[in-house]
Design goal:
This protein has 420 residues and is α/β, with parallel strands linked by helices. It folds into 2 domains: 131 residues, Alpha-Beta Complex (Aspartate Aminotransferase, domain 1), CATH 3.90.1150; 255 residues, Aspartate Aminotransferase, domain 2 (3-Layer(aba) Sandwich). Helices cover 39% and strands 16% of the residues. It contains 14 helices and 17 strands. Strands 4-10-9-8-7-5-6 form a 7-stranded mixed β-sheet, sandwiched between helices. β1 and β2 form a beta hairpin. It is globular. The two termini are 26 Å apart. Bound molecules: ligand 7TS.
Length: 420
């Protein structure tokens, strides 16, 4: 979208989403940086954490710390229950039917590598194809390249339009009997595009091809029902969902997970070991070798509790209006061009200026206490597609405000005073 068409009234006073009450839950949002009130607009990189998550981490280490799934003692039982409760909360949150479908991993990146390294290595053969899109994060490109190189298979790319939308007709043409897997972002981290994944999953399934969805940028903004989407795998990271770093989830359909070989070998992923033969553990433990990230799993559970208690209709409409307001405000600044103008967007405003490099924009904004990200956003093919070296990216969460958007616009004006 460019200019002011499609824009709704900037008034949001009747929104039931009380952003200032929500902000009170996030201590870091109230700090100052470089002598200014922090304006945190780098939520696509990582989000800030509510008190409930900080308290859960603190309580675990102060009161409950023990290894899980093994000790018979009290603390081990408490820690095991808290960790497994977190898994159940996540199952409910994404509407998976079976808790065995929730595999804890380090994050979206590890979830994708797990699928490439197990399902991929088992099922992709020489001459086969893996289908991804031109707007993927490197995490959803490189694991497939490694796989295709090893197997002598081919990576095929679904093109995107000038607005940053996937060209669905091209996708349909690219699926063939050679396609062994489709892997797609739900929401693009560089463009903000929300892809029509339900429709695309159905198209792939009609040809018998399973689909992995990279939901790293979707779950912080959208409610996801993996049953309704009918995707085969769905990966996401806690730290972008107001939870701790170092933990995330691979959701997979039971039948597929059961058919896959283990990812790593070690403790916890076995039922019995002899030098002759090892019997692997049941799902999801078959994929969880070694002592897991217990504290952050429990912290993720607290983040899910926090999210599950929000009024998501209000949050989604608040975020939509905030992004429209930011789009209108920033695109009205002389010389600015928005990169990523899809009809359906969430959370991300990427832009370039006709004469100022994004890094200079980011550096001057930082002096104003405004945190954005500049660069290629680990999506270099997107930059190549738009023939630009980098963008400046403001990315939003439900706790951002219109005042912060105004501060961003003032900051950009300042950049232009310095450089133009
Ligand atoms: N997929 C998408 C769409 C992402 O945006 C990211 C991280 C990942 C996968 C990887 O997630 P991780 O938690 O495993 O690292 N994106 C970004 C970003 O936009 N800025 O910093 C990280």
């Amino acid at each position: 979208m460019s200019g002011s068409e499609h824009l709704v009234s900037p008034m949001i006073s009747e929104r039931p989403c009380d952003v200032h009450r929500l902000r009170a839950d996030f201590p870091l949002l109230h700090r100052r940086v470089r002598g200014k009130a922090l304006v945190y607009l780098d939520n696509a990189a990582t989000s800030q954490k509510p008190l409930a998550v900080l308290d859960a981490l603190d309580r675990y280490y102060r009161m409950e710390n023990a290894n899980i799934h093994r000790g018979l003692h009290y603390l081990s039982e408490v820690a095991t229950k808290a960790y497994e409760d977190a898994r159940e909360k996540i199952r409910r949150f994404i509407h998976a039917t079976d808790v065995r479908e929730i595999v804890f991993v380090r994050g979206a990146t590890e979830g994708i590598n797990l699928v490439a390294g197990t399902y991929g290595r088992k099922n992709v053969k020489a001459g086969d194809e893996v289908l991804i899109s031109a707007m993927e994060h490197h995490s959803n490109i490189v694991p497939w390249q490694i796989l295709c190189e090893e197997k002598n298979a081919t990576l095929r790319i679904i093109p995107i339009s000038d607005d940053g939308e996937l060209i669905v007709e091209e996708f349909e043409k690219l699926i063939s009997e050679k396609t062994k897997l489709v892997a797609l972002a739900h929401v693009s981290n560089a463009l903000g595009t929300v892809n029509p994944i339900k429709e695309m999953v159905a198209m792939a399934h009609a040809r018998g091809v399973p689909v992995l969805i990279d939901g790293a940028q979707a779950l912080p903004h959208l409610r996801v029902d993996v049953g309704e989407l009918d995707c085969d795998f769905y990966v996401f990271s806690s730290h972008k969902m107001f939870g701790p770093t170092g933990i995330g989830v691979l959701y997979g359909k039971t039948k597929l997970l059961e058919s896959m070989p283990p990812y790593q070998g070690g403790g916890d992923m076995i039922k019995s070991v002899t030098f002759e033969k090892t019997i692997y553990n049941d799902l999801p433990y078959k994929f969880e070798a070694g002592t897991p990230n217990i504290a952050d799993g429990i912290g993720f559970g607290a983040a899910i509790d926090y999210l599950a208690n929000l009024d998501w209709d209000a949050i989604q409409s608040y975020e939509r209006e905030l992004l429209l307001y930011a789009t209108e405000t920033v695109s009205n600044i002389k010389g600015i061009r928005i990169i990523g103008t899809a009809k359906e967007k969430a959370g991300v405003l990427s832009f370039v200026h006709e004469s100022v490099h994004p890094h200079d924009i980011g550096t001057v904004l930082d002096q104003e206490g405004i945190a954005i990200r500049t660069g290629h956003h680990c999506a270099q093919p997107v930059m190549q597609r738009f023939n630009i070296p980098a963008t400046a990216r403001a990315s939003f969460a439900f706790y951002n405000t219109r005042e912060e958007v105004d501060a961003l616009a003032r900051g950009i004006q300042k950049v232009l005073e310095v450089f133009c």
